[in-house]
Amino acid sequence: MLQAFHESNLPELKQWWEVGVEFVQAPTDKWAQYVCENDNVHGFCSIENERITAYSQTDVENGTGHISIVTNPLLCRRGFGTKHLRELEELLPSLGVNRLVASIEVENAPSIAFFQKHGYTRNARATEDPDFVVYEKSIQPRSAGDA
Q1: Nearest of 29, 16, 38 to residue 95 by alpha carbon
Q2: pTM score above 0.85
């Protein structure tokens, strides 16, 4: 179940870096404050059996959501990241987002494969930084007939 990030989620998230999360900096108190206090930033956690399975941050600017997703390292490759992304893609249009963009380190092959698998396409012109690639996808609100 997707729910808004709350600062009380931070201690559980911090534990993930003790197990091993690559390519993403560990969340800090300052980060949590940023996510919770900015109207154009949306943080969400997926909760299963009272445990956070994945979390995301989406910074929104002019209808574009700049997204990052992290899955609990003990639960990778079990569909939790996919479920989280699908729920985000359904929810974010109601928050004014019509396009999602993920900037990924070129060495982060699992994330590149994840976004490709879910229909994101590479935008080679989107970044001048040779250490990153950008994947993007248009998202639409679901119509009543899609439910």
Answers
A1: 38
A2: yes
